[in-house]
Amino acid sequence: MLASGRILGDQVGSTAPVFLAFLTVHVLAGLTAVVTGAVAALSRKGSPRHIRAGRWYYRAISTVFATATALAAMRWQQDYYLFIIGAVAFIAATIGYLHRRRHRPGDTPHIAGMGTAYVAMLTAFYVDNGPHLPLWDHLPTLAFWLLVIARAIARARRNPPARPPGQQPPVTTRKGRARSH
Which of 37, 44, 100, 169 has its CA 20 to 30 Å from the CA of residue 18? Predict the structure, then answer.
């Protein structure tokens, strides 16, 4: 078992160099995921900014999960639950990412997957660091975050992304069904 310690006044799981190396990458990837996830969520869906931020978000969340796995393996008894939350975040992000990459119809699985990953990532951060950080005890509850995701899904359904130039809108029949050209 690795001995815990303090760095810059904050409690860390260990002061072993390997642990600290993984922790450094983990923190940087986590910050990247928080920022790029927010940019993607707040950008117009389908825009170049949304796509670019979303890709960076997925890379960052993948790195967060990989480093969380290594960190939890080093201190399994204390941190196994962080591995589980990280796995949930990674699986949810992968589902959302693959839904979009495979051009499946509808935005709900994409938004729900990416949003669930974001919520799981913030939950893991709060569970692990909340007691040590000022003001974090005032964060909204999980219900608030789920409402944010539901709002994003509803908004995406009302405002579908713009079609690329040259793409024809689907032609509908009198019964409201789309037919191919």
Answer: 37
pTM of the model: 0.68
Ramachandran region, residue 55 (left: φ > 0; alpha: ψ -120 to 50; beta: rest) = alpha
Separation of alpha carbons 60 and 36, rounded Å: 9
Question: Residue ranges per domain, the chain?
Answer: 5-160
Q: What is the pLDDT of residues 126-179, one digit of tens each?
A: 777 766 666 656 655 565 556 667 777 777 777 766 655 555 655 555 665 555
Eight-class DSSP state of 161: P
Q: In whole angstroms, give the CA distance from residue 53 to residue 16.
A: 33
Residue 133: what are its φ and ψ, rounded to 5°?
-115, 135
Question: How far is residue 136 CA from its own chain's centroid?
Answer: 19
CA atoms within 13 A on the CB side of 181: 4
Three-point CA angle 46, 168, 166, nearest 5°: 70
What are the start-end ranges of the E strands in the chain?
A: 5-7, 10-12, 171-172, 178-179
